[in-house]
Amino acid sequence: MGGTSSAEEVSLCITSLFGKEMDSVSWDYGMLDGKDQWRPFLYAYRNAMRAKFPRYSSDPRDIPSCPAVLANHANFLSNAAFGTMERRGLTTLGMNAGWRDQAARSIPDSMEGGITQKEIDALPPMIQYFRCKGSETAGDCKYHKYNFTVCGKREYQANWHPGYKNNALDGNLMAFSYMEAMGEALEELARLEPKKLEKSKDDRKARVQKLFDELVAEEQSRYGAVLSGGFPGGRKNQWPKRGGFEYRDFANKTTFCHIARLPAEQRFRGFLTENFDLTTYNTNVDRYFDDGFLQDEVMNQEIGKGIPFVNPEPHRKNEFVLVHVQQEVCLEAPTYLDRKDGFLLSSLHGWRGLTLPNDSEKEYYNEFDAKNAKGWIHICLAGCRWGKCEKNDLGKGLAKPIGARRGNAAELGLMEMTINGIEVAEYESGECMLLVRGDVPSNDPKRYEWPPNEKGRWELKARIVPGSVYSYVKFSSFIIM
Fold first, then answer.
1. Which residues span the domain enclosing 52?
2. Count of domains forming the chain
3. Going by C-beta distance under 8 Å and a sequence separation of 6 or more, which residues neighbour residue 112?
């Protein structure tokens, strides 16, 4: 997921993004996590949380998922965070940068050492032109860094991006690590086999079941220790604070997340929109899902003709509009599943909203208990391209004090929102905004608590009171805990 940090949206939406069946999950968010050590800590805790709940359906023994974290390209602070979590009981695998560089340097140089074209052509395709004059971007290598044969004109073919051969190297190192771990596990199981096997099939089955139960209990104990051992501090013991909360307060809360981003299992299974006619869940890379609507077409209609866009499905006409930005067209292969889609609300829409969770989400994400939830609600905004938001985008100003927002209302309008009929007074700032009630005193911690309705749901409605120009806001996710 490019241009993304591991927290807070990804960490709080792990189950919606990656599903219930995880055996391992990778962390490769170093570019935006930077020196914020609390981010990998939160990501690790949220993965450990999966150990508290059963998988969905794939395992007949209903073994809880205790996913390992595979940390790629981690810096010193991130490695230290994962090292701390490993000592507490979380299974982690960390990429050793020195060994990774050594593997890259061991690949033959395609422009030095007297290598001939015939010898280059005889190399495996992923090895050819991997290194030229000691660099991956020098000489002829810069012409072979990206695949120009299949959908050659793609976005993000920048010189600082690694290219598909580097990604293949990382993938192979990850695969070898998994294979080595599985090999060691098989060797340990073989070692535990008695020298003389039981004569009775039932006795043998009982012994294997006992061993299985012991191993599951051991893993559950380790992950339980992770969750009960308190929260280590981030860099200089600084976890960000917001109001009366630290981010560590969110680490062990069961969450429900309704997220538009891709890739996300919630989208691929069709739960997000429940438009199953357009959705077929497929484990291959070629997936079909409800794509929503092209944002440019929606806005061209609204800005150019002044006609509000309405979802053609009658039961969804009062919902936010699921949109995606213009993507590259490639008919040869799926190349664009990393997308920051969002739910659009514009100044022409009037009151629109969502019911959370919907029926499919309520059934599938059944570990989330609405009655016992704190009722804290976060809203994450869809990111702007390269961080540059259009002037008509209200999103960046939502977290400003209400007086400042009203100061811009004459031009851009002002967003109003209610949850189960209760007015949202403030959108408390953070990477995702924490909603604050308007009917509770400012010194009362219950101002962050939004109880569900009698059906165990949250009816979220919003509108933009129009200003003098067209404006909009695009939400990425709604998170309840």
1. 9-95+193-250
2. 2
3. 132, 133, 134
Does 386 or 130 have the greater pLDDT score?
Answer: 130
CB atoms near residue 421 (< 10 Å): 8
Residues 297-346 pLDDT 10s: 999 999 999 999 999 988 899 999 999 887 666 767 767 778 889 999 99
The answer on 366 and 288 residing in a single domain is yes
Please indicate, yes or no, whether residues 210 and 266 belong to a single structural domain of this protein.
no
Radius of gyration for the alpha carbons in the chain, expressed in angstroms and rounded: 25
**Beta-carbon contacts of residue 471 (< 8 Å; ≥ 6 apart):** 346, 347, 392, 393, 394, 412, 413, 464
Tell me, yes or no, whether 372 and 272 share the same domain.
Answer: yes
Cα–Cα distance for residue pair 250/243, rounded to 1 Å: 13
Residue that finishes a domain, picked among 226, 250, 274: 250
23 inside domain = yes
What lies within 8 Å, CB to CB, of 77 at 6+ separation is 35, 37, 40, 235
- In this structure, are 201 and 215 located in the same domain? yes
CB 392 within 8 A of CB 470: yes
210 occurs within a structural domain: yes
pLDDT digit string (tens) for 128-175? 999 999 888 888 898 898 888 887 777 778 888 888 899 999 999 999
Quick: pLDDT tens for 344-363.
Answer: 999 999 999 999 999 999 99
Q: Which of 147-161, 205-219, 360-374 has the lowest mean pLDDT?
A: 147-161
- 323 and 348 in a single domain? The answer is yes
**111: closest CA among 91, 86, 137?**
137
Q: Are residues 263 and 301 in the same domain?
A: yes
* Residues 204, 285 within the same domain: no
